[in-house]
């Protein structure tokens, strides 16, 4: 088993402890040993090993399984909504894809925001704007924001380096010919991409995923989530080098393509999971959404205030902002506008790329030739 393959097995006990389950280090070792002995042929074998080792009580078995699905399947944290019991979101199970409606039954317009959850499969066409995406990816390293690290580097800088000075003194009988200096390293800020995949954003979902794929592949640290009636982490899928393969994999992970809109509730779920919320701390947060929200704006405003307190900068890309005369009209967008650092157009791939890195950087990287 490679170290990377061990990550979910080590993250799972931490997530259990965070939710109040007992998960001692010895149980973690037993869990790894049990999985090794079983030689699991499916994820259900791993789940049975987890049940046997950690022994969740029947009253918390569902919570335990939800944490397991979140860690090992990489998603399925449901956003609470105000729907009736018949409309309440169903727990997603990758083995029950029969819940998805066939494509011919999809809502052809998707222009209206709705709170009701509808589950669809989604197939993405091969990219016809690969050149622009490649230029965007090349421009990213020089345009993404950086911050000072706590670590130092020995080359240049105006700070004296006492450790190297003492080493030089020890080698030269106490003499220093040149005072060694150092400076703080810099590293890219974390990037968090939040994509609204509700029906009203249907026309721009593929382009937004292309932007997210370039971010995840190029940035030093980037995370991507989809927001609809559910919250789904798609970072792992978007790490695939091939864009078409990455989108196809993400398509299989997300169950609420072109469904209803519970933006505020989905953001609240994101902030309620400590591991997810840590992705926003000091990060450049990019939200691709039209901000259309059914119901009152209270949940969205509260979530955005908490997100604003964590993030370094929030950039909101909206397809509605392509019009120069655009002014937020919905109550939700008017309420959260003071919490957004930059609102720009996001109606297509070119607009989103230009908003994030600028036209000049795109031209230098080879776009628009």
Mean pLDDT: 81
Radius of gyration: 24 Å
Largest sheet: 7 strands, mixed
Overall shape: it is globular
The fraction of residues in strands falls at 5-15%
Helical fraction equals: 40-55%
In N-to-C order, the SSE pattern is HHHHEHEEHEEHEEHHHHEHEHEHH
Seen as an oligomer or otherwise, the chain set is: single chain
What gap, in angstroms, lies between the N and C termini? 47 Å
Computed structural class: alpha/beta
Q: Based on DSSP secondary structure assignment, what is the total number of beta strands?
A: 10
- Spans with pLDDT under 50 lasting ≥5 residues? 81-111
Widest sheet, order of strands: 1-7-6-5-8-9-10
Task: Quickly count the helices.
Answer: 15
Protein name: VWA domain-containing protein
Pfam families: VWA_CoxE
Organism: Roseomonas fluvialis
Overview features:
UCP010256; Uncharacterised_CoxE; VWA domain-containing protein; 42% helix; vWFA_dom_sf; 369 residues; three-stranded antiparallel β-sheet; 15 helices
How would you describe this protein?
The chain has about 375 residues and is an alpha/beta fold. It contains 15 helices and 10 strands. Helix 7 links the parallel strand 5 and strand 6. Helix 1 packs antiparallel against helix 4, helix 2 packs antiparallel against helix 3 and helix 5 runs parallel beside helix 14.
């Amino acid at each position: 088993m490679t170290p990377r393959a061990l990550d979910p097995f080590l993250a799972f006990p931490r997530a259990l402890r965070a939710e109040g389950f007992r998960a001692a280090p010895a149980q973690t070792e037993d869990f790894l040993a049990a999985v090794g002995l079983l030689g699991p042929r499916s994820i259900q074998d791993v789940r049975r090993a987890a049940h046997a080792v950690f022994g969740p009580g029947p009253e918390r078995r569902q919570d335990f399984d939800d944490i397991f699905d979140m860690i090992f399947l990489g998603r399925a944290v449901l956003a609470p909504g105000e729907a009736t019991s018949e409309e309440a979101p169903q727990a997603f199970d990758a083995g029950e894809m029969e819940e998805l409606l066939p494509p011919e039954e999809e809502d052809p317009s998707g222009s209206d925001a709705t709170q009701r959850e509808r589950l669809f499969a989604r197939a993405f066409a091969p990219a016809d704007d690969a050149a622009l995406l490649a230029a965007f990816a090349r421009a990213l390293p020089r345009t993404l924001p950086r911050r000072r690290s706590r670590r130092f580097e020995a080359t240049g800088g105006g700070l004296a380096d006492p450790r190297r000075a003492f080493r030089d003194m020890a080698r030269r009988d106490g003499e220093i010919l040149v005072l060694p200096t150092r400076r703080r390293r810099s590293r890219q800020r974390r990037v968090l991409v939040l994509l609204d995949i509700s029906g009203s954003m249907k026309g721009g979902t593929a382009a937004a995923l292309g932007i997210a794929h370039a971010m995840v592949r190029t940035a030093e640290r980037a995370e991507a989530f989809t927001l609809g009636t559910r919250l789904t982490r798609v970072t792992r899928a978007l790490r695939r080098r091939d864009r078409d393969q990455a989108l196809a994999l993400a398509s299989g992970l997300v169950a609420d393509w072109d469904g209803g809109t519970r933006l505020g509730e989905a953001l609240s779920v994101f902030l309620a999971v400590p591991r997810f919320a840590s992705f926003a701390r000091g990060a450049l947060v990019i939200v691709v959404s039209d901000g259309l929200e059914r119901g009152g704006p209270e949940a969205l405003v509260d979530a955005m205030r908490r997100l604003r307190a964590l993030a370094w900068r929030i950039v909101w890309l909206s397809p509605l902002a392509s019009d120069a005369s655009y002014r937020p009209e919905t109550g939700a967008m008017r309420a959260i506008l003071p919490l957004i650092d930059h609102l720009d157009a996001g109606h297509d791939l070119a607009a989103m790329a230009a908003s994030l890195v600028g036209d000049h950087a795109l031209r230098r990287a080879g776009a628009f030739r």
